[in-house]
TrEMBL record:
PANTHER family found in the cross-reference section: COBYRINIC ACID AC-DIAMIDE SYNTHASE (PTHR13696:SF99), P-LOOP CONTAINING NUCLEOSIDE TRIPHOSPHATE HYDROLASE (PTHR13696)
Span of domain CobQ/CobB/MinD/ParA nucleotide binding: 6-194
Pfam families: CbiA (PF01656)
Keywords (A to Z) from UniProt: Plasmid
Protein name per its UniProtKB record: Plasmid partitioning protein
InterPro entries linked: CobQ/CobB/MinD/ParA_Nub-bd_dom, DNA_Partitioning_ATPase, P-loop_NTPase
Amino acid sequence: MRSNIITLAHQKGGTGKSTLAWNVAIELGLNYKKYGFKDFVFVDLDNQESVTMTNRLRMQYGQQPLYITRFTDREGEQFRNFINEIDDETLVVIDSGGYDADLNRLAIIASDYVITPVSSDYMEIFGLQKFKNILAELSALKGEGETVKVNVLLNKIDPKAKSFDDIEEFIRETKYFNLMETVIRFRSDFKHSIGYGFSVAELDKNSKATAEVKMLIKEIETKAGLINGKA
């Protein structure tokens, strides 16, 4: 079936999650009709409000803004009602907070497709270990035989780095993780584009950063069933 709730989530900050969420949201949010959806909503759960503030810059620079709705950690019931009212004709992208909280757990368990960005630093394994424990708890809530899985994306990677054996091995050996094929490298265009409220593709459609984001979108389109309807 086609996924219609896509969440970017990790229980730790500093992974580039919100920047990635912004670029994914622009690509999907401006093209949702081609996937057969009638509406698009971006949900900002991060208390840093990075995407919400970037969207304000976007309006200042004359670009078509995203429709964004926010929920704070104290608005769990409102967020639950929002999730329950979402129909299959609305595409939703969620930027969860980079910390463990009930609101962020709800976003994960309610989502059809979850992306978890991590760098290739060995220390990232410790963060994923804690996240694995959270996913195990969420799987237990869903019931016997149910496993909550996330799709781990190597993000903010040194452009010269070629091997990620340690973290890839950990991801592949953990039943709660799927390793994505796309790799997003550390590119200055991500920082520069945010300053204008642009995606990297809008800043420079021919850049290396744009090529990598386009690869990511194609992978999401296929694996989340946006194109062929099979998630």
